[in-house]
């Protein structure tokens, strides 16, 4: 492990540091002689601005590692933001209630059932010992009855909590429960159609993107894209908590983003589920033959993607004091760009959340720097696009190939053994700092 | 292997240095300006918004001691909020903002006010009262002017008669309702005026207005006047009439009067008249500079409208350098 290898292994961090250095060195100086880019407020702004895209990109990363893609996240965010805003401002049985409350009931029922069953299964496995694990079967009581009862109890609890809130308007806690659940259900529906119908994720989520936008507009009703659903001064008090700085240091949306990265990152890295995700992306057929329930794992990744879109929507409503059918428009593309910059391969099987975290921050810092220098906004788009291509070339180590193709100096095929056979499988993502390990 | 990596590193370092150098030289030139004013625009791809930016930049060119920063929100709330935050960090002396919508931008406008930056809200209001000034047009006023002129065209006060086709903008939008209400304040007093359509919306678009008018022409032997809520829709109606050879016996009135759009059409004689919906760009910047120089400014400024007909269209085009 010489120094250069280490450098190339951690190049993403270097990219992040480089962007940061450019920002610091080239920063405009304020009238009081302070470095504007480095000013505490500016860095907080960046963290807050990237947190929505960041949450979406977090869910997207796992989906892309399994070899899929989720184009519907922007529209799911639109639905959830409309539901969230309407519950907060309009009392009575609105379309948002009709959509939201049954969703929570269904989600509570399913979650209670699945989680309880999962716990029983693992208990049984640990009791059976390592050799007999594959033959463990649950009996009727532990496999169906008890999980069913738990699910019903959870469902009743959720309804008992939500139903009294319909007539006045919903409280913040109720909304925090409903919006992510709506996202979760639609995400799970994506996954279910992809797995059960054996369709391409691209087309299924594309269809969902259109459908969800329609549902968002239907839910909003008269308050179409021109008029935000959620206006009014009472709204500001409700969500003060979600806009505030936690301990006066980190903006709440940023905390959600960091939390999502840490938790989901740990899940992908240290749990069997995480290993399954990588295995499916590497070779789905092989994964299935080795006994992984590939379909279920995929459904879970899409569901989590929807869940995070729902959480992002709540933060959107809190920040902008409105929910609209056009919230989150085009966000899926920003998220995919950030994920790919972070070294996750669209082919699947390769990538990491640390990479995505860097990718999101690189993108955010870049926008911030360009804006601080007041570069023409149309030129900004061109620069951003070029930087995406450049970063991905470096990520994929194909810059040398490109130069060689153009017969330029410094170009030689970076790795002559780019055949699929030589690509190591991803059993140990744990050493994989920047994503790409060849 | 090693040599290539060294090359890469060297290239990377060089790139880093050049960008830094470029960026630093970039800010050096603006040091001798007295005022730094930031303007956050929603989007730049609509004709009216493009004219808005043109007006404000032309005004800025007249004040050599002002540095104007124009940002583009790309028609997204998130982007516009980020732009304004950025301008606050740059410690602008005054902030001009034309909000995408009231609710979404109120928070960040409040943030600017809390940072002691004077805020000038243009064209669309926000849900706070602490800003320095609001500058905008009044769609009702424009509707009234159009209604008054329509009555005049159809025979004058008390004697006016004729069949009117009104083509709405978006049904859910405030400007469309204001332009409708103002117009009807005058025309509803005339018993001779008949309305042929019941709230048909062309969504501000030329092609949709064409289809509405084509249907109206088929259903009605006699149409005397078309009132489009903006110039493109009035022009779409004109084209529909032209395609069936009836454009000569119909008068067309539009609104917005952009030099490169409505005024040109009036000058060619295709529209009878248009009423300007002036962009608040130039006036807003003038007011901001006035305020920075220590003078008092009013809380609200309503921009007047101008009637543009065949007589003055050529002059207006000349004034705008067309």
UniProtKB/TrEMBL annotation, chain A:
The chain crosses the membrane at residues 12-30, 50-69, 76-98, 104-123, 144-163, 175-195, 202-220, 245-267, 299-318, 352-370. The keyword Chaperone does not apply. Residues 421-438 have a biased composition (Polar residues). It is a multi-pass membrane protein. Keywords: Cell membrane, Membrane, Transmembrane, Transmembrane helix. The keyword Cell membrane applies. This is ABC transporter permease. It comes from Mesorhizobium shangrilense.
UniProtKB/TrEMBL annotation, chain B:
It is found in: Cell envelope. Keywords: Signal. The keyword Cell division does not apply. CDD domains: PBP1_sensor_kinase-like. SUPFAM superfamilies: Periplasmic binding protein-like I. Residues 37-295 form the Periplasmic binding protein domain. Belongs to the bacterial solute-binding protein 2 family. This is Substrate-binding domain-containing protein. It comes from Mesorhizobium shangrilense.
